[in-house]
Amino acid sequence: MTNEMNKKCVDECVACAQECETCATQCCAPAGGEMADCLRTCLDCAALCWLCASLCSRDSQFCGDICRLCATVCNACADRCSKHDAEQCQRCAEACGRCAEACQAMAA
User: Fold this and answer.
1) CA distance 96 to 75
2) Number of folded domains that form the chain
3) pLDDT per position as a tens digit, 54-97
4) pLDDT in tens, 36-49
5) Cα separation of 39 and 11, whole Å?
6) Considering the entire predicted model, what is its pTM?
């Protein structure tokens, strides 16, 4: 793993976490029950992205493992959010896709 890959992963995780938290509070929560699964997925994804950024920032021995899991959750969140028309949901899906790619590269 290179320092450049590590920095890209951290940057994408932070950006994804921010988009997921915004999506959860601006789109999912106000919509109520119909988007409860999306809300939970966004919050799970944000929490994992923050953790992944933290572990990768300190070059943890568990970076590869957490990156693998983060990529899985980011892909699930991207899939859920891409089904909604709201602009924030679409931004969240795009950020999750970029983060999943960066995390997969780190996990390889």
Assistant:
1) 6
2) 1
3) 999 999 999 999 999 999 999 999 999 999 888 999 999 999 99
4) 788 899 999 999 99
5) 23
6) 0.92
> Who contacts 24 (Cβ-Cβ below 8 Å, separation ≥6)?
39, 42, 43, 46
67 is written with which tokens?
Answer: 């990156």
Provide the CATH number for the domain around residue 42: 1.20.1270.360
Domain that holds residue 88: 3-107
42 membership: H or E segment, kind and range: helix 36-57
Take residue 8 and report the two structure tokens written for it: 């890209």
Measured CA distances, 7 to 49, 62, 67, 71 (Å)? 14, 16, 13, 16
Q: How many CB atoms lie within 10 A of CB 7?
A: 13
